[in-house]
Amino acid sequence: MKNYLEFEKPLAEIEGKAAELRAMAHQSEDGVDVEKEATALDKKADKLLAKLYKDLTPWRKCQVARHADRPHCSDYINAIFTEYTPLAGDRNFADDSAIMGGLARFNDQPVVVIGHEKGNDTASRLHHNFGMSRPEGYRKAIRLMDMADRFGLPIITLIDTPGAFPGKGAEERGQSEAIARSTEKCLQVGVPLVSVIIGEGGSGGAVAFASSDKLAMLEHSVYSVISPEGCASILWKDAEKMREAAEALRLTAQDLKELGVADVIIAEPVGGAQRDKAQTMENVRKEIAKMLKSLNGKTSKKLISDRRKKFLDMGMKALVA
After folding, report:
1. Is residue 197 within 8 Å of 210, Cβ to Cβ?
2. What is the rounded CA–CA span in Å between residue 37 and residue 30?
């Protein structure tokens, strides 16, 4: 059963009617032919779907980016990597299930892959803490990036998090320091580092993995310093003003490409990644391959220098603006 977003309710009604007609025909002993009517409804649904997704507002983009049926980090790892060997723990406190990471092959090239995992049902979402990492998750990522640097392995990060976990224990164990160290490590490694925001890129939890040579965003993904609801609560003392906040934050892939934060936008199927997971993951695979190819041949010194310049230039543009 499909999960429909609030603005997709008219679409849900049409697709529901088509499914109902086919179910009735299947159960009927008279062999009633309803395929013509069902096909007409299918065409109507396709047109409505294209219309709904043609010009999504920033708030609707947020809803699509958070869709429960979008492919998650584990789906990408299973689909576009081979010989994935997970590595656990930060060698200090614990293993954080919100962060997946390990050794793998990408197009037969050895790499290190790191990403946020949200889970796909109630039990797995609780297990993965909805993709919200604690300090030990960032420290695990730092350990993996250190290993990649030591052995000359490119790093691929897949970002999908509402933000860092805001719990008391996380703060006591040095949440902000762990995020800062992870961001610093991204800027220091002498190997190619490419990132893809596959859903939500929330706050420091995303920046800690996205301070890379190349940053790609899926067409309906978002990347922001704070969630629209959090921003609305602070500015207007009213979380219901999240639509206005989403507009002001300029968090869409299109906005961030224009601002120079994102390097490339990866197309999604009509209706979002959740409508055709296989095609979405193939699009991501192709773009990762392009980004890694563009970094081939660069020395460690050149990679670090160019990465540093990229972020300094962003700061200069912001000052001028």
Report:
1. yes
2. 17
- The pTM score is 0.91
Q: Where are the beta strands (DSSP E) in 6-98?
A: 82-86
CB atoms within 10 A of CB 137: 33
Cα(119)–Cα(234) distance, integer angstroms: 29
CB 278 within 8 A of CB 79: yes
DSSP 3-state assignment of 264? Answer: strand
CA torsion angle 5 62 80 257 (round to 10): 140
55: DSSP letter: T
Q: Locate 269 and state its tokens.
A: 């199927």
Q: How far apart are CA 70 and CA 159, in angstroms?
A: 13
68-126 confidence digits (pLDDT tens): 999 999 999 999 999 999 999 988 898 999 999 999 999 999 999 999 999 988 999 99
Residue type, 154: P
